[in-house]
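__Record contents__

***
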Amino acid sequence: MNRCHLCPRHCQLEEGQIGYCKARIMLARASKPLAYGKLTALALDPIEKKPLSMFHPGKRILSVGSFGCNMSCYFCQNYGISRAGTDDSRWQEFSPDVLCALAIELVPKGNIGIAFTYNEPMLNAEFVSDCADKLKEKALKTVVITNGNFCIDAVGNVIKKVDAFNIDLKGFSNSWYRKLGGDFDTVKAFIQEACKTAHVEITTLVVPGQNDSPEEIDELARWLAYINPDIPLHLSRYFPRYKALDAPTDKQALFKLADIVRQYLNNVFVGNV
């Protein structure tokens, strides 16, 4: 058996076996992207929808998604594709050349590039990398919306090709990340690495009774401010989806948490209200 080294799960796989994420397969003793070029969603979105509030505001971006995820958030908004694999999702195959040609066609409509989003795009790091090379040739942007739960040794070169990230910082505790199937230290390292070369915005979905204490949000904001107080932070309101049943985040509680964050960060946004 061989290990996939892309994320901290380090799935140990036999030849031909698919990893937990449903997007990687072990072939010839190496982890390969099962989802390369396979797209389940494609739309021209406002850049602010990613959300990226301080990266070319007012523009649009061609947003594409595939299938699979390496975390197990019980409140996932896109579980229909994030918990799907190649056999239980509907997809259409695009080469980097064809996809980037479509991005160029949409430039007159305000498009600035391609955003890899909807499911977990870094599982398909090879495809992101190949598309980023093509986009750079045409002076277009590469954007990635990710959970950041990936090992720098495996994805560091891809990170350097990305112009902008929105990274989900799920909270600020090891216990919460363990519950969601991720690794807290890995995500922090990913954020720090991304900030070296790309525009980075952070999103934290505030889940009542889980990651919403003033103390935790204070610590999260302090840590981001240590990296750069100008990093935009989106505090997003939770709604019950997938396996989650709890009531939505209280709006006033969310606004109070935003006031705490503003003590440390200069760009704070409240979303889903």
The chain has a mean pLDDT of 96. Helices lie at 79-82, 96-105, 125-137, 152-159, 174-179, 184-197, 214-227, 251-261.
